[in-house]
Specification:
By secondary structure, the protein is mainly beta. It starts with a helix and ends with a strand. The N terminus is likely disordered.
Amino acid sequence: MVRKRWWIALAGTLVVLVGTLTYSHRMSSLPAFAVGLRPTPTADAPAAVSGARSVALGGLLPIEEPVPSAKSAPPGRIRVAAGSVEVRYTFDGGVGRPITDHLGRHQLRPLGQNGGALRLVRQGSGLALSYPDRCRLAREKDCPRAILEGERDDSLNPGTRRLRYGASVRMTHADLADGANVVQKGYSVGRVSQYKLQVDHRLGHPSCVLAGKGAIYRAEPIIDVADGRWHDLACTRTRDELTMLVDGVPAASVAVPAALSIANAEPLRVGGKGTSKSNDQFAGEIDNVFVAIGS
């Protein structure tokens, strides 16, 4: 009888011990699971974008991934520059400061997808912007993409006024593709006006583009600038002509209507028309970006 009671007591002790260990394990598992939960978005803490990156190691610029929106808000009335405007970007401030123009305004932010990164590299006594290498992946949608993009800024809309814009670029033939946008504001489709500098096709030809009212005007010289050297590329729109200059020398021109007005709600972009697929991604290096209106 004594031995039977001893076995009963031992069994009861084991049941209590197993139950305690199971409860303890379940309780210790809860915080680890909770850490893995995605926090509920609030007004002060919006939902994170999947795959977003923010790095600032060495010469890398901190990249943001654009937050998709269901539908863009109507742009409202689109205005044009009220007077003379000039912005210049030298990128000499380094990675520790926002990218702004020479007067500390008109900020540009780096945007990227699929691991695309922008780097600041040495150029003479200053810095230049280096873009991702030309992508050779089988699926273009998987390619790394990265650009600089500003906010909506109607003061950079020239309307019909005199306009100058451009940049210095360094490219090789390995950097070329069917489209490589250097600087642009607006689009050429959807009846949205545009001014743009690009190095299009695989021949290394630079070109200046104006678009509006369904028409596109392009000045493209038969000059290969993808030779591994720096070239100054500039576009000048006078009353009725668009001229492309390469290293300070007029190289091509095209007639444009005097009434052609360039005004849109799009931001200034450097290195591509966006970060989505088929963004005309630039590959190579860019420096000394400028836009001047009315001067």
